[in-house]
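User: Teach me something about this protein's shape.
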Amino acid sequence: MSTGDPAPQPLTPETLQALSISQVRQWVERQGMDLALWALLEQDPRLGVRQLGVRCRRAWQRQQAEEARLNRFLELEQRWWGRGAQQVAGVDEVGRGCLAGPVVAAAVVLRPGTWLPGLDDSKKLPPEKRELLAAEILAAAQAVGVGQVEAGEIDQTDILQASLKAMRLALTQLPQAPQQVLVDGNRRPGSPFPETAVVGGDSRSLSIAAASVVAKVHRDRLMAACEQQYPGYGFAAHKGYGSPQHLEALQSQGPCPLHRLSFAPVARLRGASDSFLVFKEGIESCLQPAELERIAHHIREGMVHLGPGELKQLRDLYRRRRRLLGGCGPRGEAEAAYLSA
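Assistant: First, the predicted structure itself:
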């Protein structure tokens, strides 16, 4: 039998013996694998054929596990697709913890039946894999939108509000209004569309995971391009996060226009007091009105330690946070009245 000839059908121990290992490999590549063939290969007296059988079985097991993972990943989308909603958008953002650069969000609408092997939360993927997957997502997705909020606006509001705005902007970039929005985290952005917050969504929803990859790749490319405009900070390497290299550059060069001046490591270089940084972080981390009441009380007691103009900044932050959380209870009214003055 020549090397390129197909193996006899059906393949039996006798016909298998007539094939070289190379011919067996070619047969498997052409015909695929099944349980009976694995058993046949793994019982062959030749080590190379047995190893081929083991490798094929393991490859099939990995494929089955990946298919099961992706099916779990699509449970939320399939629920909405089953209700007739074809425009289901997954939304996620990146860059909240950076010291420089924008916060970027992406919205991705996948077609029912989309299959993207290897897709996962962007934080779990190496850069090369993210780049490949981003290209696959853009090719396979029904629609993709990207939104970003720059450092200056982050300083004027806070990172939570900037992140939610970036998500809203990403949704507005979709060519068709989504019928359902799946949002990573426990905060909905407040778009005009039906929204569902999904805690850990980038590990539970394929469209959210796709959005996390698109947003991450988009932002990384932006920051790498900023290396030319603002050399010496290492933006291409750390992408604006607080790496030792970045902190050293901040110390030696000071902040550039990309830096978030309200973030603690940058603010310290500009002379912000430790009390201001503690109170600011406390306000921005409040999730309940009662927590905000307690922070207001601590600020009133510790305002003597604040620098010039810092109390006004805290008042502005407090007002925005109070509006977001819906006000304070009776115990905090005195502090709230003072800080809201």
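Now, about its shape. The chain is about 55% helix and 10% strand. Residues 75-224 form a domain with the Nucleotidyltransferase; domain 5 fold (CATH 3.30.420.10). If you'd like, I can walk through any region in more detail.
User: That's plenty for now, thanks!
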